[in-house]
Structure formats: C-alpha cells, structure tokens
C-alpha cells in the first residue's frame, strides 16, 4: 500500500490515509493467478507533498479521479476472496496497522475482518538473512540479497512492491518454516496485541509488578536490599542511592520497567556508589 499522513481536523489526530493498494494473488503452487491495483480518492488528504509525488509518480489528478476507500476496499475484498486457509502477506506489519487505522476511521470497524490468516513476510525473510544487531532490512535490500533484479520492478508503486514480495516468497518458500509465521487474526486479542505500544512505566502503582522483584542484593556483601526508588523522567527509570545496612557501602540502584502486551520487562543496574571528584573550573 501507499499511504499519506493527513490530519483529521475534527479529531485533531493524524492518519496514514491509504491512497493506493496493490497486490498479487498466488495459488497453492505459488503461481500468480491475479493482480490488483487501484488508487484511492482520499478523504482527508488535501494535497500530496512533492516528495511523495516524486517517489511514487502518483499525482493529485490520479487521486481525484479514483474511487473512495469504501468502494475500492469492497472490490479488493471481493478480489481477495479469502477463505479460512488464505494467508495474507505484507512486507512488515505496518500495512496491517494502516489497514486497522483506515478501517477504524473510514469504515468504523476496528477489525480487518476479511483477513483470516496473516504472515509478516519481512519477518519470514529475515529468518534467512543475518544482519548486524538483527536490524530489519528494506524490501529492495532483501531483493538484492536474493539476487533479484529490481530493474524489472519500478519500486514504490504498490503493485511493483508486491511483485518483489512475490518473487522473494517464491524463491525462499519453505513450507515447514513458513507455517511458524502464520498468525490467526481471529484470535480475540490479535488486534489489541497488534496495536499495543510497549512503553516505559513511570507509576508503579498502576503497573502489575511482582513485589518480589522490588529488591536487589548488595554488590559488595550480597545483603538483600529493598528497592524504594523514585522515577527519574530524564533517565526514564526509577533510581535510588541507599546505604547497605550490613557493609555500610552506598549503593546506586536503577530499575527500568517496560510494559509489554502481556508482561512487564524489568532491567536492573546495581553498583557501588563512587563519589565523583569535583571538576576544576577551566
Ligand atoms: Zn552490603
């Protein structure tokens, strides 16, 4: 999909408004059996910015003459003709996020109901590729890694991007491996999990944290110390400096709590307090 950030004035929020959908359909032998391509007349986007126009070669006139999101999505759903066994693929789950946004705002429907099974092609392809720090790679970089000539595809139009995805998928297809990447979107928590944003916890009372976690051991004498740190907004962590009752050393403890969808991730840093030497004025 191609989308454009636009403001919904009445709500004072921004939406990634879909202005083009492109897709290819494969049968069970991974042969192409259909192509979908359509631009969409936007509701909120007034004018495309020039960078976007250059990147996609889509212009304002193209969009003006297009059908609305409602009309295009109806045709798209018909064309997809998804049943319980159809797997919907996209390069990173961003497209699925954007679908949720557009379905919510334009169709007043929070679930992308026509997709029953979903797989993130980027994640699947990443399982074949080693990168530094497990960094994600772009679609064109992936194409290069698998020696696909991108000259055959003019990038940054939705259909061409899906053609690159198709070629990558055909080249790497490993049924056993791929099965592990398929998600059932019918699961009750699927969309809540998808749109959940992990965040740093700043108020421990509101978080569900096991009390046993709120302690640490003195790095000098191994005495157990209770943690009562206060939140430091600059460090985005809870901190305290406390004297160990046993060895009398001062200890610096820093705890960071990150709220994930179904758990809290805690990282602790404990060290002996060393008084900094006063800096000389130069
Ligand atoms: Zn101690």
List keywords for this structure.
Nucleotidyltransferase, domain 5; 2 domains; single chain; alpha+beta; elongated; four-stranded mixed β-sheet; 9 helices
Give a brief description:
The protein is α+β, with helices and mostly antiparallel strands and 282 residues long. The protein is built from nine helices and 14 strands. Helix 6 runs parallel beside helix 7.
Architecture overview:
With 282 residues, the protein is α+β, with helices and mostly antiparallel strands. The protein has two domains: 2-195, Nucleotidyltransferase, domain 5, CATH 3.30.420.10; 199-272, no CATH class. The chain has nine helices and 14 strands. It has helices spanning 50-56, 60-64, 69-80, 94-106, 121-126, 139-145, 158-172, 175-179, 190-195, and strands spanning 2-8, 13-26, 32-41, 67-68, 87-90, 117-120, 182-184, 199-200, 215-217, 224-226, 230-232, 237-243, 250-259, 264-272. The strands form four sheets. Strands 8, 11, 12, 13 and 14 form a five-stranded antiparallel sheet that branches. It is elongated, with a radius of gyration of 25 Å. The mean pLDDT is 90. The site of zinc ion has 8 residues, from loops.
């Amino acid at each position: 999909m191609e989308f454009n950030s636009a403001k919904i004035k009445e709500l004072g929020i921004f939406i990634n408004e879909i202005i083009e959908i492109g897709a290819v359909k494969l049968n069970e032998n991974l042969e192409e059996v259909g192509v979908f391509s359509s631009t969409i007349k936007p509701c909120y986007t007034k004018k495309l910015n020039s960078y976007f126009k250059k990147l996609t070669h889509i212009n304002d006139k193209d969009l003006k003459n297009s059908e609305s999101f409602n009309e295009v999505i109806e045709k798209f759903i018909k064309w997809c003709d998804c049943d319980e066994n159809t797997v919907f693929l996209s390069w990173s789950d961003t497209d699925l996020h954007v679908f949720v946004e557009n379905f919510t705002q334009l169709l007043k429907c929070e679930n992308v109901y026509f997709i029953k099974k979903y797989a993130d092609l980027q994640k699947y392809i990443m399982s074949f590729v080693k990168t530094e720090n497990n960094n994600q790679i772009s679609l064109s970089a992936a194409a290069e890694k698998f020696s696909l000539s991108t000259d055959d595809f003019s990038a940054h139009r939705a259909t061409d991007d899906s053609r690159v995805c198709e070629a990558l998928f055909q080249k790497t297809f490993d049924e056993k491996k791929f099965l592990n990447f398929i998600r059932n979107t019918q699961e009750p928590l699927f969309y809540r999990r998808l749109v959940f944003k992990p965040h740093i916890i700043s108020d421990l009372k509101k978080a569900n944290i096991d009390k046993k976690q709120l302690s640490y051991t003195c790095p000098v004498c191994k005495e157990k110390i209770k943690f009562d740190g206060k939140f430091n907004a600059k460090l985005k962590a809870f901190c305290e400096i406390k004297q160990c009752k046993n060895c009398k050393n001062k200890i610096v403890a820093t705890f960071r709590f990150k709220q994930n969808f179904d758990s809290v991730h805690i990282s602790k840093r404990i060290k002996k307090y060393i008084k900094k030497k006063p800096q000389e004025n130069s």
